[in-house]
Amino acid sequence: MAAEQERLKVSPGEMARVAAALYEPADLTRKTFANLRIQREALGRPWGEGDEIAQAAEKDLVPMIEMLDELGVTLVEAFTHTAENTIATAKSFHAAEEIAVENSNSLRSGFNGSDSGSGSGSSGRR
């Protein structure tokens, strides 16, 4: 019974459905970061130009904003790649399942005697 609990069970259809749902956070993240970028551009450089505060903001704040934009791109890529790879894995599991069913059916038909033309007719005992 313990071995039964340790088995991995995969439903390729359910796996593909859940994987497709991962495109939603990718789209949401893409839209959120695009909106953030548009709003930032509309503000311009609110810290001004030329003085010490403006120079500090350019030196420290601008690189952090650029890093935040890169993070947004990375998150979108991560969600998208995870969705794509999980869908590919689901397809692979589905194909393996079909092959296993075909092999099982082939073995079953051989045991049931539908493959009787290949033997010599003996029972195998001497």
Word description of this protein:
This protein has a domain at 12-97: Helix Hairpins, CATH 1.10.287. It has four helices and no strands. The chain has helices spanning 2-5, 12-21, 23-43, 52-111. Residues 115-126 have low confidence and may be disordered.
Provide the fold topology.
Elements: H1 2-5, H2 12-21, H3 23-43, H4 52-111
Helix pairs in contact: 2-4, 3-4
CATH class of the domain at 12-97: Mainly Alpha
Reported CATH architecture of the domain at 12-97: Orthogonal Bundle
CATH topology of the domain at 12-97: Helix Hairpins
Number of helices: 4
User: SSE order in H/E notation?
Assistant: HHHH
Percent range of helical residues = over 70%
Kindly state the mean pLDDT as a whole number? 85
Spans of at least 5 consecutive residues with low confidence: 115-126
**Proportion of residues in extended strands:** under 5%
What form results from the Cα inertia axes?
rod-shaped
Number of strands: 0
- Distance between the ends: 41 Å
Q: Mind telling me the C-alpha Rg?
A: 30 Å
